[in-house]
């Protein structure tokens, strides 16, 4: 079978897939012109959604495309075809996202950044930290990544609540609420972690009204999508002391323009969309598993519902 690889790391992906399935005919690259010349020969695509979208926009279309990202927003554009099978990357980001979230929660709890500043000022900082035990963590987006994050946090003795499309029992959360309960739950949380995908229902949900409900000691972490946050409202909330701080990994425009107020907002840390990188070895294993399912006409892991948006 001919497989198109449209990726920055196309050579590494080709080596991994060749080792797993020597019979595959791999056609790989990063330049759109090169990819367009061979895309029509390949019923299966593997790659970055922004590159795949350019191929679709130029009249090419696969039988099945596997995204190497969890987010597939570029492929949801109204001017692109949606009559093919698309799967997003699932089951491979849980640990790296959990490491990111846990790292910044611990840094906040232990006042790591302010202690670095104190050392730079040669000021002895003997403030005592508190513990994560008993702290309230709200994870907004309780899919496979959110559940993994919760699983890593649970041993620290935190209280875990989740937000999902509909309320339901879901381990290891004590409670899972619907998105309608987000504002109320924001007032409950010591740590609010956004992992929502980009859909019409999840845009601009973090606004002035929600930030006003948060505790002045709470930390907001956005590792989901930038469009979920009303930027000006977050900056105003930080300036007013309505929350203790924010860790922002994703923004509406990336790279963030130099004029953007996030650069100078008080107690806001930018992490440059680094929270959960795709590990090629894990992505290759997912692709090979889905390729077997594709050949067997079985449901694919991470199948995208174009109407739902994920």
TrEMBL record:
Limits of the D-isomer specific 2-hydroxyacid dehydrogenase NAD-binding domain: 103-274
N-terminal signal peptide: none
CDD domains from the UniProt entry: 2-Hacid_dh_1 (cd05300)
Keywords per UniProt: NAD, Oxidoreductase
SUPFAM superfamilies registered for this protein in UniProt: NAD(P)-binding Rossmann-fold domains (SSF51735)
Protein name: D-2-hydroxyacid dehydrogenase
UniProt lineage: Bacteria, Pseudomonadati, Pseudomonadota, Gammaproteobacteria, Pseudomonadales
